Amino acid sequence: MEVFMAKQALIVIDIQNDYFSEGKYPLYQTELTAEKNLEAIALANEKNIPVIHIQHLVSPELGEGLFFYDNSKGAEIHKDIMAASPDSPVVVKRHADCFEKTNLEELLQDMEVEEILLTGMMTHNCVTHTALSPAAAKYNPKVIEECCCTIDPIAHALAVDSMQVLDIEMRTIENAFS
């Protein structure tokens, strides 16, 4: 793994197969969201801004009806997203907050990151929990809204509004990268 010293890092949250049309929990506009994330990853790569993939895993012992089970095809990060930055670290999580019981903060400290750009799935859950995490506060989190999606447009809009009320800045791809 290449070590970056960067002001920013792009954190791509849970763009995993189970959220797409053939998966166990398809979301609204996943294909469009994946395309927008590919644009953001390409721009990050062009500007030498590190990309960090986040992968949510669920233990099968938690029972049926869930998704992202350990070692399942549905839990894999979407192939196009991985192909866009194949050498980027993958942080595995088991909670909505990407910082909770993971090595994300250690990676950001090692890279000397000052600001995190958040994208991914689901806006109202893992993106919001990470943006509002106490651990994220020191990294001045920004959410690239067009690179996020969830179950429907209303849930997405409510999540975005709630983050803005709590002073999380929304960005577009064009104005996200310094």
Biggest pleated sheet: 6 strands, parallel
The shape is globular
Give the class from helix and strand content and strand pairing.
alpha/beta
Strand content: 15-25%
Roughly how many Å apart are the termini? 23 Å
Number of helical elements: 6
Portion in helices: 25-40%
Can you describe what's shown?
The chain has 178 residues and is an alpha/beta fold. 31% of the residues lie in helices and 19% in strands. Helix 4 (123-131) links the parallel strand 4 and strand 5. The longest helix has 17 residues, at 30-46.
Which characteristics define this entry?
globular; 6-stranded parallel sheet; alpha/beta; 178 residues
Explain briefly what this protein structure is:
By secondary structure, this protein is an alpha/beta fold. It has helices spanning 30-46, 79-84, 104-110, 123-131, 153-165, 173-176, and strands spanning 8-13, 51-56, 90-93, 115-121, 142-149, 169-171.
Task: Write the SSE topology.
Elements: E1 8-13, H1 30-46, E2 51-56, H2 79-84, E3 90-93, H3 104-110, E4 115-121, H4 123-131, E5 142-149, H5 153-165, E6 169-171, H6 173-176
Parallel strand pairs: 1-2, 1-4, 2-3, 4-5, 5-6
